[in-house]
Structure formats: structure tokens, C-alpha cells
Design a protein that fits this description.
Elements: E1 2-10, E2 15-21, H1 35-39, E3 41-47, E4 56-61, H2 64-91, H3 96-120, E5 128-136
Parallel strand pairs: 3-5
Antiparallel strand pairs: 1-2, 1-4, 2-3, 4-5
Length: 141
């Protein structure tokens, strides 16, 4: 998975802090509010083996499988557990209100599982690597 970023500062001989330019639903060109434009920036640590300097626009890459796995864990697993909880409660012939409560308990358990699993995976965080220097921030002004 490739994204574009701007190098903000060097943090080591071969590492840097970059601000990822994430896309937004409106494309970030909404002149009326620009709220989502400012909320769409994320700072990450990147491997800087190409010698990028602060202000450089770069293309960064990470393993797509790691990003998609994290997204499934956070977004899909809780909803699947929600429906499984409801199906179990309905099979036990609980009332509608009780079935809904059980489904939300399963939903919460899905988020708890995601939180516990992500804590275990902190020893292997998602890593980013600079693939190419596109230009400098001064080039866009």
C-alpha cells in the first residue's frame, strides 16, 4: 500500500517522522468547512534509506496485508460477533430486548478482543518505508 507524505523531521540516521496525506471523502477541496482536510493528517515513523530531508514530499509504502488485517480486526470482527450474539440469543428463545442486549455484549467483546490483540502486536507494529522522493514542499507553493 503506497501513500504520500511530507517529511517533518529526522529522528535518526535512517528514520524520520512523516505526515501522511490521507484522502478524505470530499477530496480535501471543500472550501466551505475544510474540517475533514485538517483531521486527515497522521504522523508516522518511516524508514529513511533514501536520504529524504524535512520538507520533502515522499512516497511511502507498507505491507497491504498488515493494514487490511488491522482494518478487519477493528471494523469487521465486532459486527460479525454482534450478529452471532443475536443469533445465539434468538436460538435460546430469549425476548427481543434480551437478544439485543446479548448482541451488544458480543459487539463489545469484539472490540475488547481487538484491543487485546493489538496490544500483543505492538512488538511488531506496522512499518512504513520511503520508496521515492517526489519533491520538496517548496515546489508546491
Amino acid at each position: 500500500m503506497t501513500q504520500y507524505a511530507i517529511i517533518k523531521k529526522l529522528t535518526g540516521p535512517e528514520t524520520a517522522e512523516a505526515e501522511v496525506l490521507r484522502g478524505t471523502a470530499c477530496g480535501g477541496d471543500c472550501g466551505s468547512c475544510e474540517t475533514c482536510h485538517y483531521a486527515s493528517k497522521l504522523r508516522v515513523e518511516v524508514k529513511n534509506e533514501v536520504g529524504a530531508q524535512p520538507g520533502d514530499r515522499v512516497e511511502i509504502e507498507t505491507q497491504t496485508s498488515r493494514v487490511l488485517g488491522a482494518a478487519v480486526l477493528v471494523y469487521v470482527v465486532p459486527f460479525v460477533l454482534f450478529f452471532i450474539g443475536y443469533a445465539i440469543a434468538a436460538a435460546m428463545e430469549l425476548s427481543e430486548a434480551q437478544s439485543i442486549i446479548v448482541s451488544f455484549v458480543f459487539f463489545a467483546a469484539g472490540f475488547a478482543f481487538a484491543a487485546l490483540f493489538s496490544r500483543r502486536k505492538k512488538s511488531r507494529p506496522i512499518t512504513y518505508e520511503i520508496r521515492d522522493i517526489i519533491g520538496s514542499e517548496a515546489d508546491t507553493v
